[in-house]
Amino acid sequence: MFRVTPLVRNLIIINVVVFMAQNFLSNLHITEYMSLWSIHSPYFKPYQFFTYMFAHGGMGHIFFNMLALASFAPILESYWGERKLLIFYLATGIGAGIIYAGVNYFLGAHEGGIMLGASGAIYGILMAFGMSFPNMEIMLLFPPIPIKAKYMVFVIGLITYALDSSGSVAHLAHFGGAFVAFIIITFWRGSGNNRGWQ
């Protein structure tokens, strides 16, 4: 499951390079510029719906996101092709950011906080994998049990929620990425275009 395909490799490289820049060039405030700020905040810029998904908040954050990307996205890239996976990845990441920001805007929550990380797009990948290969058995790292792909996104979501004792995880963005993925896959199936573009 770790035969990393070209697009997935490039996405991992971009995320790692950005993470290194965040840590070694912190005086440039890269994290602040790339993160998604609340729409209420004077620091909010529309481009952040794109950039936030390439910045991360710590080693564990980027490690588990890139591990999931390397585990599941290569199969989708082989199934769909690079172009379709790239469009899907960006659409679910941006969609997750828009849903997160939109709900917080109307509820008036998290006015001073920021959101960053590839998790929205990663949950989109997990949802797509589960919908495309529903009966494939996956061995989870924690807990180390086999599970069918169609249940994976829900189980991982519950585990993430249960382990978030600090309340710092943007669960709404996870849901947003999975929701956008569900809509896209359903649309592609309806248009007869679920396999890939030639």
Task: Provide an overview of this structure.
With 198 residues, the chain is mainly alpha-helical. The chain has one domain: Rhomboid-like fold. It contains 8 helices and 4 strands. β3 and β4 form a beta hairpin. α1 runs antiparallel to α4. It is globular, with a radius of gyration of 16 Å.
User: What is the rounded Rg?
Assistant: 16 Å
Categorize the overall geometry.
globular
Tell me, what is the CATH class?
Answer: Mainly Alpha
- Summarize the amount of helix as a percent range: 55-70%
Side-by-side strand order of the widest sheet: 1-2
Secondary structure category: mainly alpha
- The overall pLDDT average reads 88
CATH topology-level name: Rhomboid-like fold
Supply the number of structural domains.
1
**Total beta-strand segments:** 4
Spell out the CATH superfamily.
Answer: Rhomboid-like
Strand content: 5-15%
Order of helices and strands: HHEHHHEHEEHH
End-to-end Cα distance, whole Å, is 24 Å
Please outline the helices and strands.
Layout: H1 6-24, H2 30-34, E1 36-37, H3 48-51, H4 59-80, H5 82-107, E2 114-115, H6 119-132, E3 137-139, E4 146-148, H7 149-163, H8 171-190
Antiparallel strand pairs: 1-2, 3-4
Helix pairs in contact: 1-4, 4-5, 4-6, 5-6, 5-8, 6-7, 6-8, 7-8
